[in-house]
Every structure is written in C-alpha cells, then in structure tokens.
Specification:
This protein is α+β, with helices and mostly antiparallel strands. It has helices at 2-16, 56-74, 89-93, 105-109, 214-227; strands spanning 41-47, 119-131, 135-147, 152-165, 201-207. The chain has a five-stranded mixed β-sheet, sandwiched between helices. It is globular, with a radius of gyration of 17 Å.
Length: 257
C-alpha cells in the first residue's frame, strides 16, 4: 500500500507541476545511465495494482508499448546507427498487413526519416490487465510531455489496447525487479538488453483513444479526469521536468532458480 501511495504521489506531482519550465533545473538531478542507445526520453509507469508492473504479463505489456514508442521515434529496423532495434520486437509483432485493424500502423512501420531526439517524458498507467497465462489483454493510458527549444507541452497522448499470446507451456520469468523508483540502477538500460518477449507474440496494439468503444475509453478517461479534474474545460497542460527517471528500469533478465 505504501508503494502504491508513493507511485500515486509521484504521478500527481509529475502531472500537475506547472512551474518547471524548459529552462528550469531540478533541485537534485539523479545520474542518468550511460548504457544503451542515447534515448532522450524516459517512461514512468503506474498501475492500480503495483505488482502488475513486475509480473510476467505486466512486463510484456510494458515491453510492447515501449517498443512501439521506440519504433515511432527511432525506427523498428535499426536503420539509425546509434539506435539499435528494440530486442525481440520485430519477431513479436511480425509483419502486420497494412490496414489490419488490430494494429496502429506507426507501431510496426517504424520508418521515420530521422530519429526523434527531443527530450520528453511518457507517463503510462496500466489501467486494465487480464491474463490466463497464455493470453494477455490490457489497456494502457498515456500522457506525453515534450521539451524543445521552442516549447514544453504535455498532452493526453493515447489509450493503448494491447493483446499478446504464446503457445509455450511456460509464460517465462519476469526480469529483475526495479526496487527503487527514486534511483537509477547502474546496470539498467532505457531499453532492455535482452529479448523480453521470448515466445510471446503481439496480436494487437492499437491507439484506442478515439474509438467509439466505451469499454476501451472508460479506463483512461477516468484516469485522465483524476489528473485533470476540469477536463476538457479550462484545460492547462503542465510542463515536463528536465530530468526524469525511467521507472521501472530494464535491469536484466531473470535466472531460473
């Protein structure tokens, strides 16, 4: 319960602070990891049940969403020298047919003309998760903050519906758990150094924020309204902190006991 309260407080602080502009300095900047590609953004995850972030199903949902975001920004195929592909993502998502309603095109096309190196922060909330050990169905809510020389803005970026499945007998073990949201683990990476997906396949990942299916809208609009009580009237977006830790970090794969 204490951990859930800390996460809730951290999320509210990140969303409602409006005095931290693009040129402000944090009181005590934490050292950033120098491992992995030079990604300029960080991702913060919360969930109603915090343990959901760290079990195998939650890990696979996080990997799917972060890999999709990575593909949008840096390409899915490793076409830029400094930005290798997200391990295992292409095998997990396969080759969706153009127009397939189960996938938002930019999650798999991954062919930007140049890498998106803007500083930004993504806040994700795992609003719904069901699994039977071989299938996963989840809804993830998102906020996005971007910092450039010209502007610093936060937007209600997406509600993402994610589906995965595996034919393996065992769903696999989750990776090493990030035990401290307030610190950077020295071995951690912004993207994992191993194939988190294993035998799992991504069967669907679609930005559902504008869908007419209220069953997908409701979890995220409910969460957004907690962060922005006056939505959509008198909407004032907060600004993003300059230095924001990744949480949970990708530290390393688990080892079978």
């Amino acid at each position: 319960m204490a951990r859930a309260k800390r996460l809730s407080a951290l999320l509210v602080a990140a969303v409602v602070v409006s005095s931290c502009g693009a040129n402000s300095q944090p009181e005590e900047a934490s050292p950033a990891t120098d491992l992995g590609p030079p990604v300029q953004y960080s991702s913060l995850w919360t969930a109603g049940n915090v343990d959901d972030l760290f079990d195998r199903a939650g890990e696979l949902v996080r990997a799917s969403v972060e890999a999709g975001e990575y593909a949008v920004s840096f390409g899915a195929h490793g076409q830029f020298d400094d930005f290798p592909p997200f391990p295992g993502y292409l095998d997990a998502i396969g080759t969706p047919v153009d127009g397939d309603p189960r996938f938002s095109r930019y999650y798999y096309e991954g062919s930007p003309k140049e890498p998106n190196t803007y500083k930004r922060m993504k806040i994700y909330h795992l609003a719904q998760l069901t699994t039977d050990g071989r299938t996963i169905d989840a809804t993830v809510c998102a906020l996005g903050s971007t910092v450039t020389e010209d502007y610093n803005v936060t937007s209600l970026s997406s509600a993402i519906h994610v589906q995965l499945s595996t034919t393996a007998e065992n769903p696999g073990l989750p990776g090493i758990r990030d035990a401290d949201l307030d610190a950077t683990d020295p071995p951690a990476h912004i993207i994992p150094s191993w194939n988190v997906f294993g035998d799992w396949k991504i069967n669907g990942m679609v930005n559902a924020a504008l869908t007419n299916d209220r069953s997908l809208q409701a979890p995220c609009f409910d969460w957004w309204r907690i962060q922005f009580p006056n939505l959509p009237e008198n909407m004032q977006y907060p600004t993003a902190p300059e230095d924001y830790l990744q949480y949970p970090e990708w530290i390393g794969p688990a080892e079978a006991s």
